[in-house]
Amino acid sequence: MSALRLSYFNLKLSLRPCFTFCAVFPKDFEMEKEFFIQLWMANGLVTSRGNLQMEHVGNEVWNELYQRSFFQEIKSDLVGNITFKMHDLVHDLAKSVIGEECMAFEAESLANLSSRVHHISCFDTKRKFDYNMIPFKKVESLRTFLSLDVLLSQPFLIPLRALATSSFQLSSLKNLIHLRLLVLCDSDITTLPASICKLQKLQTLRIESCNFFSSFPKQFKKLQDLRHLMIEDCPSLKSTPFRIGELTSLQTLTNFMVGSKTGFGLAELHKLQLGGKLYIKGLENVSNEDDAREANLIGKKDLNRLYLSWGDSRVSGVHAKRVLEALEPQSGIKHFGVEGYGGTDFPHWMKNTSILKGLVRIILSDCKNCRQLPPFGKLPCLNILFVSGMNDLKYIDDDMYEPATEKAFTSLKKMTLRDLPNLERVLEVEGVEMLPQLLKLHIRNVPKLTLPPLPSVKSFYAEGGNEELLKSIVDNSNLKSLHISKFARLMELPGTFELGTFSALEELRIEYCDEMESLSDKLLQGLSSLQKLLVASCSRFKSLSDCMRSHLTCLKTLYISDCPQFVFPHNMNNLTSLIVSGVDEKVLESLEGIPSLQSLSLQNFLSLTALPDCLGTMTSLQELYIIGFPKLSSLPDNFQQLTNLMELSIVDCPKLEKRCKRGIGEDWHKIAHIPEFYLESDKKPTFCDNIISAWKKQFWDPCQSSYSGWSYFDSMVKDEDK
């Protein structure tokens, strides 16, 4: 600690409070660099210097602290968004220097609040604060309060510079006249109160995961000091602030919704020196290309992510092409996406590889009339490509290539192709080496597509294609994850008769393949690295080979769902996690043969009235989920023998839930020893979500996720690493 303390005293005086402020977050907390700099700004720890904006000064401060090893576990996405952590010893140093001025709490420890505290974070959202019990009244000058649960009417909040809250009662915001940073997260607000316009010093406003938030007050333009307006996960948003172009200090505007009325057009963007991300929706409301040109996107040098969306497919293709031509950005753009574009091809600037040479991510969604794409295969930095919803597209890139000397898509690591009914190949020119670094390939409803062998691919998802498509992964010794869905005629996997084809495969998922009856012994012999196996909604699937015990030596997790003819294999001694849903009830009698099982989920046994007694003998079991047993009325008498069981969840089992009521149910004595016990009737707010997300993390494909009220394009814009 003495050496670390010496490093601290070697810092410039201006850097020391920036470092010690880090103690506002708990140990091992992953901090977002951009947000952290905004907190510094809000508290006056960094200010403008000469011609340097305070954001640039903050960036310099952060870089110096990083170079001096005060930060670690640095992560950066494709456009340079950075997260970081502090080593526990470094956190201890910050805490020892700043003392009681900066504190990260759990709710129950707020009773020990010091009168000298200036900065508080509390991330324990399980319990509500009782402000009458907690001695906030003695706090003299609170500057930062980061907690979702906060009553804004409390007088101790008046000196605040930075606030994060989920409150929907925002009328008291007008009293926080010193506020410079406001985060509204997971709030039920539908609009901001007009009183927010009195916060004349507000620099940063972040509105996140507010599902019902739809509009801003008309006088929002009075916030002349506002520099960053960031909106994420607000699917009900209908408009951006009126005459937002008058907020001349604005540097970040993540969302702009074009309206048809005065004060909501693209001309509002003309003078704003925006950077980072800009998502423009409602381009169907743009009258002509001159109006589009007023946005002056080409003049916004710090813009690195641009997404454009048309919400009305009735806009003529010629009009849409002219508008898109006028929305040319500067050449430093890194992420670019278009949704609902009605043209048959794209404008000239998109075909100019010198303009797009820095692109790392492209999303093209529901451009239904499009027949030709720009030569994306020649972009040297392109890392992620998503193409969806183009009915007449035959090739991803139909540009000319010299097979002997040119390669295509040399840097691409992830490619997603969806709903392209006439796509035949990636390149029109055959014989060209392509996709040498491709790691993830996701294909859905592209029935005519054929691919060359892709030996670098590690993750492959294929849904609703032809069986020829699957040949691209044969002899792939790098493939680790394979997901096959809706291949109606598929009877066996490609490479079934070629040992070693899938020797590196760790996860295999097969869904809606109604002709597949089993996985052959020959195939299983080649799956020596398999750890997770899912078979779901395969009506004829009957069995795994009885030899799987000797072949699948690494298998830890098995998921069998809606396979009514399935017969459980014997002696699966290595299995630690099992999910069974919608199969014959006799399968449950086979559980006795899995002594190593630690996690078990039993789902949707609609007529079962009793669980097998062998369940009570599975002494290695640590987690048990019982879901969808409407006739199940009791637990086995030997259930108390499950002494290692740490978590039990019972969902959609009305009779059993009644018997398992905490402290009073007839079966309570059988489960009273289990530390974590959940009933659906307990109505815990995140109970079912936690169960579902736990299984989805293991088995669900992220590309199938959806966001209520959003298009798929919206979800892709949000999840910028996908």
Automatic annotation (TrEMBL):
Keywords assigned by UniProt, alphabetized: Plant defense, Repeat
Record carries keyword Repeat: yes
SUPFAM superfamilies per record: L domain-like
The protein's name: Putative leucine-rich repeat domain, L domain-containing protein
Keyword ATP-binding: no
Domain R13L1/DRL21-like LRR repeat region per the UniProt entry, residue ranges: 266-390
GO terms of biological process kind: defense response
Residues covered by the Disease resistance protein winged helix domain: 24-94
